[in-house]
Amino acid sequence: MATIDRVEVLVTSPGRNFVTLRITTSDGVTGLGDATLNGRELAVAAYLEEHLAPLLIGRDPARIEDTWQYLYKGAYWRRGPVTMTAIAAVDVALWDIKGKVAGLPVYQLLGGRSRDGVLVYCHASGSDVESLLDDVAAYREMGFQAIRAQAAVPGLSGSYGVRKGAFYEPAATDRPDEQVWSTEAYLDFAPSYLARVREKFGFGIHLLHDVHHRLTPIEAARFGKSVEELRLFWMEDPTPAENQEAFRLIRQHTTTPIATGEVLNSIWDVQTLITEQLIDYVRTTVVHAGGITHLRRIFDLAALYHVRTGSHGATDLSPVTTAAAVAVDICVPNFGIQEHMGHTRETYEVFRGTPRLENGMLYPSDEPGLGIEYDDEAAGRFPYDPKYLPVARRLDGSLHDW
Ligand code: EZ4
Ligand code: CO
Fold first, then answer.
1. What is the CB neighbour count within 10 angstroms for residue 135?
2. What is the pLDDT of residues 244-287, one digit of tens each?
3. From the DSSP assignment, how many helices (H) and strands (E) are in the chain?
């Protein structure tokens, strides 16, 4: 029996920070897992290095389910982003190893393809409506079939989701950036620019929008109702989801589809949302929800209740997560859509072999495992660079949800 011989926690910042777990077996097979938790990276690195690595040495790398249960139940302190991201990194690295040992891509181990490719949505944004429309046009040109649209709210600094330069990078400063929020200004403005996108591009594209946890349930209900005729693919994170019951109220008022879950970490965090059919898309991801093993459990529960998948896929999820996400997405019967922002050139220098993007669809690599190689030499050129996510304050200076 092969054993786990080496566990390395790799931190690099090729344009933004990534934490990666690399597990090596006694047979010399290596597996990669993403462990990036944006703005709190070193907490997960320490969890892995100090608490999980010593437990992994000498274990059988083939026992993925048992290792998952051992780390989850063994922690005693359950769930939460740091723990679930650390467990996810181990889980994904072990799936990568299993694929390499079998000589098969991970999606084959999960049951094989249910579809030809994975529909993705990209991010269009603008500092005003005209530049948003130009950006949507540019993404249409590139072949994307599904587009998320965000425009800066007039008069508010730093609206969520508006790109500066080539990439929207949320964790950009060494102190949390202080942004200003007005629900009234947003609610007056957002439906009008979404209508402009529909007017110009018609109903032949999937149009998405991220509210980013900014509204109360009744405000979200009003927003959803006001955009019903625009037939959004979804409104994302209309209200913070710690309180799952809050979505009942939104649901009672609007037929605009609802997506949530990018900050949620376990099946219990989405149990009410799914079993009461309060959402249409669950956005939990491999990296922050316990890896492939746990995410499949969430997606299977979702399938019973007509909830489809729509995993988070911002730039702060590494190419290892993209590869793992696509492996799951291509297999599960209730796949909906996959978020895909892509990464900088520097990031792809460190993580080689990302899934192929064509006409707004991602296709998994047919390399054994996940098909991603970590380039240590390139990674060494990009040292860790501490960064924080922004905070949002209302016009009176009090903190709001960012
Ligand atoms: O703000 O990943 O849908 N995507 C998002 C992201 C999140 C970032 C936080 O690190 O909401 O842009
Ligand atoms: Co989001």
1. 21
2. 999 999 999 999 999 999 999 999 999 999 999 999 999 999 99
3. 14, 18
Domains, the chain, in order of start with CATH, read 4-105 (3.30.390.10), 109-366 (3.20.20.120)
Active site residue ranges: 160, 212
Tell me if 210 CB under 6 Å of ligand 1.
yes
Q: What separation in Å is there between the alpha carbon of 314 and the centre of ligand 1?
A: 6
The tens digit of pLDDT for each residue in 300-321 reads 999 999 999 999 999 999 999 9
Atom number in ligand 1 closest to CA 161: 12
Query: Residue 53: which pLDDT band, with cuts at 50, 70 and 90?
Result: very high
Residues paired with residue 302 on neighbouring β-strands, in sequence order: none
**Core vs surface per residue 290-318: b (16+ CB within 10 A) or e:** bbbbbbbebbebbbeeebbbbbbbbbbbb
Beta bridge partners of 21: 9, 33
